[in-house]
Design goal:
The structure holds 2 protein chains of 2 kinds.
Chain A (H helix, E strand, L loop, with lengths): L1 E5 L5 H25 L4 H9 L1 H4 L4 H27 L7 H17 L9 H27 L3 H23 L33 H19 L1 H11 L1 H6 L4 H25 L13 H11 L4 H25 L3 H18 L1 H4 E5 L6
Antiparallel strand pairs in A: 1-2
Helix pairs in contact in A: 1-2, 1-14, 2-13, 4-8, 4-9, 4-11, 4-12, 4-13, 5-6, 5-7, 5-11, 5-12, 6-7, 6-11, 8-9, 8-13, 12-13, 12-14, 13-14
Chain B lengths: L7 H27 L7 H19 L2 H25 L4 H20 L17 H4 L3 H5 L4 H19 L1 H11 L1 H6 L4 H27 L11 H11 L4 H24 L5 H22 L17
Helix pairs in contact in B: 1-7, 1-10, 1-11, 1-12, 2-3, 2-4, 2-10, 2-11, 3-4, 3-10, 7-8, 7-12, 11-12, 11-13, 12-13
């Protein structure tokens, strides 16, 4: 009989290896899934993981998309990872992302049609504030009353979605839009549009912010006392208390940080690639970012790589949909599978397989 | 605005119907959590149950086959969670979230060919003289079989947990898995069974949505019902009877806000549509402010015999 034996210390090799193993397993099982859907599995895997970057036919269009899609995923996932490290489960990033976009876009649109270069920074500030404020609801309820932050933050996603619906068709609707739902388009608003900084790279301010967030989180966790306190709170809450860490401040910091980053991601998206507030401009990044955070082992560098990989599956998925007729939903399942395999292979970081000897009962 | 268009008799009748899916999912999750496992994948299992149940019912023209298939699908999906958390000791929060995300993707994939079709639905039972009572008959005694089954299930779970030896073992495992293990109970096996039961219940709840409550398949149709079921377990302080209260309360709010929207009340539609979620938050706040929890002590902790 095989049995698991706890390792005295987590295996560093497995911590790094398990995401790779998970990707490989997902490719195998995903390939089987695609062949059941009637596509050639090898072609499907190549279309998803290889063609978006290397195909001469598509890469001109798809390569810039990599950064466009990875930017928000990384930005949100970095914020989430800070909380997850402390055992604070903010799973409502999607709601904070939407509220950031609405607040930021609203602040900008109030000043339309001014072309001042200060408008975009102002919108960014309001975007971060919107996401932060939305995350403060579960944070304050948790610290004041001990309410479960998982359920509250998730419920607020649905509330944010109804607010988004009424924003798109009501208070933020384009007055010149002949009654169609959707706000003014930021792409037609010169200075305010969050466009590409270098042509054909997909690099916009949101991607720059994502890179800064990666560096910031790296410094936070490796050099700053607050990062140490966060990790301590997650690993040993009692020990953290005894060493004088204030749990309330940790909760407020973690949720506030992840909310603000998600809100900024929403603003970058709405002022850039999406262009306008519409009822469905949010592409579920807030939820996919949870997978990104775990896939990156809650480590900033890991999240950077995981975000790029996840962006690749988005783009490759669209390409596979177009070229091979694979349903779009298959990609969502594919991403979910990736998380499962990661969680499954993760066991070997903390445990090892041993052949069990006969035990005395 | 015309509130007189809302008939109280029909209102109560539709509350019974709209409470059923969350009641089924919540009573299943209650058993799972009583065994000390937190499965956040209820939404994913529910929506998978919804699509599988719908597909099976359309293909066999039998809604009962649909419900059976939905229960099977929910249990099968929960098996993934069970193996990951019980044998591979993965983090329960992360695995549950993954289950929800995967379930949403899986259901969208499976459901594509079934969009816009009507399914065979359950017939209303005729309970003889009971159904003929004016008013009360329409309110309580003219429903389909699942409405009554869900109530019976709550009663059965209550009796199981309170009066049977197996129920006692399940609670022991949830309160202190180390003590239960030391007494010789199979912690992992008990939890596996509880998780499968919870998955089957969530599947049934989902199928009730797609086969009776709506009755159609649309992508993402559970719209947070699974999460509300999780909140109801907290609301109920892990007691079966209160699950019933919670489910009817939320069913009531859902139906009432739909009726108010239809009646054209001068309240923003966004506020009405958000009301079930806002009330969920409010209820969670009240419950946590009161400080009475009653959560199983081992809830969410992984068990490994070496610990």
């Amino acid at each position: 009989m095989l049995r698991l034996e706890k390792r005295p210390e987590p295996s560093r090799a497995w911590v790094a290896l398990s995401p790779l193993l998970a990707v490989a397993l997902t490719m195998i099982v995903g390939g089987a899934l695609f062949s059941m859907l009637g596509a050639n599995p090898f072609e499907a895997i190549r279309t998803i993981f290889w063609d978006p970057i290397f195909s001469p036919q598509f890469s001109g269009f798809t390569r810039p998309q990599l950064l466009v899609k990875a930017g928000p995923l990384i930005l949100i996932a970095i914020g989430l990872s800070i909380g997850f490290r402390a055992g604070i489960w903010n799973i409502g990033a999607e709601g904070q992302y939407i509220m950031g976009a609405i607040c930021g876009a609203g602040a900008g649109l109030a000043l339309y049609p001014s072309e001042s270069p200060l408008i975009f920074p102002l919108m960014l500030l309001f975007g971060a504030l919107g996401g932060w404020a939305w995350a403060m609801i579960p944070a304050l309820l948790k610290t004041k009353l001990g309410t479960n932050e998982i359920l509250v933050s998730l419920m607020l996603v649905y509330v944010a979605e109804t607010i988004l619906a009424s924003a798109a068709s009501g208070f933020l609707r384009n007055p010149d839009g002949m009654g169609f739902p959707g706000s003014r388009n930021f792409k037609e608003w010169g200075n305010v549009h969050n466009g590409e900084l270098i042509a054909n790279t997909g690099l916009h301010w949101g991607v720059v912010a994502a890179f800064i967030a990666v560096i910031g989180a790296y410094v936070l966790f490796s050099r700053h006392i607050q990062g140490f306190n966060i990790r301590l709170t997650g690993d040993a809450p009692r020990a953290a208390r005894f060493s004088g860490v204030n749990p309330t401040r940790i909760v407020l910091f973690c949720l506030g940080m992840s909310g603000a980053l998600a809100g900024m991601a929403g603003l970058f998206e709405v002022a850039g690639p999406a262009g306008q507030i519409t009822i469905d401009f949010n592409a579920g990044y807030g939820f996919t970012a949870i997978i990104v955070a775990f896939l990156g082992r809650l480590n900033p560098i890991g999240i950077l790589l995981a975000g790029l990989l996840m962006a690749l599956t988005y783009i490759g998925g669209e390409l596979a949909q177009l070229m091979l007729g694979v349903p779009g939903a298959a990609i969502q399942l594919f991403q979910g599978m990736l998380l499962f395999f990661l969680l499954a292979t993760d066991v070997f970081s903390n445990y090892r397989l041993r052949l069990a000897k006969k035990e005395v009962a | 605005m015309d509130l007189s268009s809302i008939s109280p008799i029909l209102l109560v009748a539709s509350i019974m119907v709209s409470a059923t899916p969350i009641m089924l999912a919540a009573i299943g999750e209650l058993v799972v959590e009583k065994s000390g496992t937190l499965n956040l994948g209820v939404e994913g299992m529910m929506i998978t149950g919804a699509v599988v149940g719908f597909a099976a019912a359309v293909n066999t023209t039998s809604p009962l086959v649909g419900f059976a298939a939905a229960a099977g699908a929910g249990a099968l999906l929960s098996l993934v969670f069970a193996i990951l958390t019980q044998y591979l000791l993965s983090n329960q929060v992360a695995t549950g979230l993954g289950l929800t995300l995967a379930g949403l993707g899986l259901s969208a994939l499976l459901g594509k060919p079934y969009e816009g079709i009507k399914s065979p639905t359950l017939p209303k039972l005729d309970l003889g003289p009971l159904s003929d009572i004016p008013g009360l008959g329409t309110m309580f005694f003219k429903h389909d079989i699942m409405v009554y089954l869900s109530i019976l299930l709550v009663i059965a779970v209550w009796a199981f947990l309170k009066y049977t030896r197996a129920g006692l073992i399940l609670r022991a495992v949830g309160e202190s898995h180390d003590s239960a293990h030391a007494l010789g109970y199979k912690v992992v096996r008990v939890r596996m069974l509880a998780i499968l039961f919870g998955g089957a219940c969530a599947g049934l709840g989902g199928a009730y949505l797609s086969l009776v409550r709506v009755p159609q398949w649309t992508e993402g149709m559970t719209a947070g019902a699974g999460w509300i079921a999780l909140a109801i377990v907290v609301f109920a302080s892990w007691r079966p009877w209160r699950i019933m209260v919670g489910a009817y309360l939320f069913g009531g709010i859902t139906v009432l806000q739909l009726n108010l929207q239809a009646a054209g009340v001068k309240v923003p539609v966004a506020l009405l549509s958000a009301s079930p979620y806002l009330v969920t938050i409010l209820v969670l706040v009240i419950i946590s402010a009161r400080g009475a929890h009653g959560a199983p002590a081992s809830l969410g902790r992984s068990f490994h015999a070496s610990n």
